[in-house]
Specification:
single chain; alpha+beta; Calcium-transporting ATPase, cytoplasmic transduction domain A; Calcium-transporting ATPase, transmembrane domain; Rossmann fold; 11-stranded mixed β-sheet; 33 helices; 28 strands; elongated; disordered N terminus
Length: 903
Amino acid sequence: MRDERTKQEDQGTTSIDAPWVESIDRLIEALDVSPEEGLDAREVAERLRAHGPNLLQRPSRTAWWEVLGRQFRSLIVLLLAGAAGVSFAFGDWLEGAAIALVIVINAAIGLITELRAVRSMEALQRLALVKAKVRRDGAVTEIPAEGVVPGDVVVLEAGDLIPADLRLLTASKLQADESALTGESLPVSKRAADLPEETELADRTNMLFKGTTLTRGSGEGVVIATGMTTELGRISSLIETAEEEATPLERRLDRLGRMLLWATILIAAAIAALGIAAGKDLLLMIETSIALAVAAIPEGLPIVATLALARGMWRMAQRNAVIRRLSAVETLGAASVICTDKTGTLTENRMALARIATSAGVIELSEGGFRNDHGSVHLDDAPLVRKALEVGVLCNNAEIGGAAGGVGDPLEVALLDAGARAGIDPAHLRDRFPEVREEAFDSETKRMATFQTTPDGDTLVTVKGAPEAVLSACAYVLDEGGTTPLDEAKRKQWSEGSKAMAAEGLRVLGLACKTVESADAPAYRDLSLVGWVALADPPRSDVREAIERCRAAGIDVVMVTGDQPATARSVAAAVGLAGDEEPEAVRGSALDRVSELVEEERSSLLRTRIFARVSPEQKLDLISLFQEAGRVVAMTGDGVNDAPALKKADIGVAMGLRGTQVAQEAADMVLKDDAFGTIVEAVAQGRAIFDNIRKFVLYLLSCNVSEILAVAIASFAGLPLPLLPLQILFLNLVTDVFPALALGAGEGGPGIMRRPPRPSGEPIVTARQWISIGGYGGLIAATVLVALLLAIRWLGLTGAQGTTTAFLTLAFAQLWHVFNMRDPGAGLLRNDVTRNPYVWGALALCSGLLLAAVYVPGLSTVLKTVDPGVRGWAVVVVGSLVPWVVGQTALMWRRWRNRRGGD
């Protein structure tokens, strides 16, 4: 053997880079191995040292403290930490401890919810823990798959999990399930013949790939890649390098945090500077600045946002959508594109007989039974259809029944199922026509045949296979009067019929039969054509309605599949994703150089709704294309090949029933029922959650602005402070938080899916809402200052009573202000706020807490509150209702104006 250096150079040649291209002889020479003897022990040891074990890279396990650390990355949390630090620095220990408690509670909620971190690489690693049968030193031995090296000759049989990437040396009736890697829904027939260099991954029929499974046949292959150099390893690298996008909510909260940070600094600095310049006491102005800084920060926002997201997560779980990443709960509500796979999401992930074509015409099979253009068909009146089904049942190795519905090739199971629906009992039919010989399916001839003994003692030959392969073996065609010769005109007519059905995306099989004297007769000669059967993966019944809901909500649905373009186009038409005017499916190869495309070409791809034969890298390119255009992308997937795209998307959606663990670990959301309609329900929930977040942010900030304005104006006007720092903190942590939590628990309005998605760059608080915040805040502040003046100067209350009156007026005004958060189009008495039972519970709880703040010893001492008396309470009741009355009047006027504009 040549030295290792020479072999390493050879392994970098084209024959290794594209092993499906070169002849077996050249490949064997490049790998320096004898197929008959395999590698010897010394060579195995050298290659194991050179290439390493056949394992995927093990990621470091995410520790709980890393998850905990992520809870402190929010700017709002950092802002709260700064406020706590300032409070401790000035000796306000109670205030600082209260703010610190808020931070701890928020972090604990996030830690508990997010502790199940992404472990995609660990799931991939588990796929490698298998055995492999290899030929070494002339003998076949079973070894752990991690010991397989390039050049090993692997002996294969049905049921094996492929240990490495192999080039086939021999293949006998070999089929492999590659759905987890390529997205191809049916087993792929394999053969050893060379292929062109441009052959796509899903079409490399002379290769077997690590992590896939043999479903049929036997053969041998030579290892051309192990570990991270395999296709599975390459995908695991993509998962590791795919950038995990921050969710839109995270980006919006960060922007809001930055605004609040600068606002807090500017307010505190300005008030302190102006007060000192006016000759006021330095310590008093520092304390006032701290009070205003505390008022500017919505201490309850992190807790309310986290709990609202957690409740949304629980609500989605009840609707079969399990959220793995807390902040992703809201992301679907911002989704403007849903990239969905085909098999099992838009379809039922099973093959079913859709059509039977005989010389008597075409019969369709649906849930309602057998039908033609004239209506229902009874098979007693359609003998050719019954004959076709009998041939399909006899020329068949599958079995039906059991939890999975059947065992064997999905196409064969579908034929048995169709026969059973026609009243044909497979076991009874096989008893009547016992099989005596079989010619198994061969990927070269693309046919299979069985020989059965008839009740008359003759031999019945039944054949099924690719339409052109079956047609070429037929000399006759079966019709209602017997058989007639199959001339060239009829051959052309039958051939065009099969091609037309295939163009619709159907899987077409030819059926033929003949009667001979003995089982020694040739199988594929002088057959009588019975007809074509066309099979399809039926679309899910609820998908069309779900896609219509997406259209109404302004969401584009894009099919991204590894299947053939014709099949993808047919399913898209069946589910309403594509109409007659929709162009054909675009192959994934169109995405290979997406960064080099001109604007017109990029725009064309952005308008495309069907992508077929798409590789894992191309899925990443497609997601990047949409994200660069400012779209928020949700991506569905179930296989190993989908994992990188699931991680790259704004929100990855994995299938829970049929999805691989790799895909589920990489995703943000897992569907327990694999239904596309569940995604749409999750979108509606996501939108409702964001609406709730926006409402409680609007509520909290308008309450905080009222506190800022009240304290600032009182300071400039020489009035007593209407609120003390601990009173502000009490309001922000107690009476503000519970109504905000109640708003976060709202169910959402009925029109939530009849509006377009939010723009990807739209902040939580828009310019119009900042105006509302300022207006509501100013109105409440003015009410509080008037109440303070009335209590001190008109009613003659003491300073402590006046401050308490102002405190209570502000507190109750903020409680009634929650009703101003209703949708402008809703009614005064029946709306999303009044129908929310949590709102009424929060108001009752907070009212009790406010009474406790005044009348419970100890708490009243800490907050420096006193009984305001009857006159003080009268001011509180009347004053606190003013912002609610004004706010409801403004909302009703806005509703009237909108309706008038609509008329």
